[in-house]
Q: What sequence folds into this?
């Protein structure tokens, strides 16, 4: 093979843990909390709250990018972004997303299918104003996902805004805020030996009950 790398023999044995019915939680949020705490407490996991989020675009193709989970509760998973970004436009169009957490050292993956909606404005305000001023200005400066002429465009805009807001609070841009992804399916994947991994799927039924099933690896 010319100029291509063969990865056929790259193989890892997964043997750190297991996910069996007698040990799993009744609801996926409780199960998520258990695994998320494990990830947060694992020193080798640098950003336990980094997740991939896929949204489907108008051409029918999904687009996946990373964002940071900023809070979660019984209702869902909250992240912040620019509402006019590519993901923002997809979400406004479909109100759907798929989230993925992968913590390689724990040999764990979680896949979440969710309905997505904007959070209340006062919650976005609260989070925006809790961020360092530099991050607040960054959100104002960046027309996320739009084409810009060059790097200087951002740097110059930042300098201007730094002056403008030197002694003033930065208002949250209307097009920047939080989304909550409300799950209706959550799959927990635990690597196991011989590729016989554990896959436990929680499916929301009648908007209230979580049905638990096992999927073949
Ligand atoms: C680890 C990591 C965390 C990120 N967190 C966020 C975030 O919380 N919000 C955000 O808007 N972009 C975040 N980004 C940038 C996005 O991946 C992406 O480039 C940006 O949101 C524009 O995506 P879009 O054009 O598909 O909407 C993050 C990137 C990485 C690699």
A:
């Amino acid at each position: 093979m010319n100029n291509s790398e063969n990865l056929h023999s790259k193989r890892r044995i997964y043997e750190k843990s297991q996910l069996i019915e007698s040990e799993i939680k009744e609801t996926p949020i409780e199960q998520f909390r258990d695994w998320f705490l494990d990830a947060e407490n694992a020193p080798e996991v640098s950003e336990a709250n980094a997740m991939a989020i896929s949204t489907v675009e108008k051409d029918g193709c999904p687009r996946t990018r990373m964002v940071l989970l900023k809070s979660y509760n019984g209702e869902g998973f909250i992240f912040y972004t620019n509402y006019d970004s590519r993901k923002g436009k997809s979400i406004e169009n479909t109100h759907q997303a798929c989230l993925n957490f992968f913590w390689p050292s724990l040999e764990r993956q979680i896949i979440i299918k969710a309905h997505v909606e904007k959070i209340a404005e006062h919650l976005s305000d609260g989070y925006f104003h809790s961020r360092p001023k530099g991050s607040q200005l960054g959100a104002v400066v960046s027309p996320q996902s739009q084409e810009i002429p060059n790097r200087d465009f951002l740097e110059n805009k930042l300098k201007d805004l730094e002056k403008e807001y030197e002694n003033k609070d930065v208002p949250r841009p209307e097009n920047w805020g939080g989304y909550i992804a409300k799950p209706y399916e959550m799959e927990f994947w635990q690597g196991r030996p011989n590729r016989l991994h554990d896959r436990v799927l929680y499916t929301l039924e009648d908007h209230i009950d979580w049905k638990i099933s096992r999927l073949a690896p």
Observations:
- Strands lie at 50-56, 62-72, 77-82, 96-103, 108-118, 176-190, 198-205, 209-214.
- Residues 28-214 form a domain with the Pnp Oxidase; Chain A fold (CATH 2.30.110.10).
- The pocket of flavin mononucleotide is lined by residues 47, 50, 63, 65-68, 79-82, 85-87, 144-145 (CB under 6 Å).
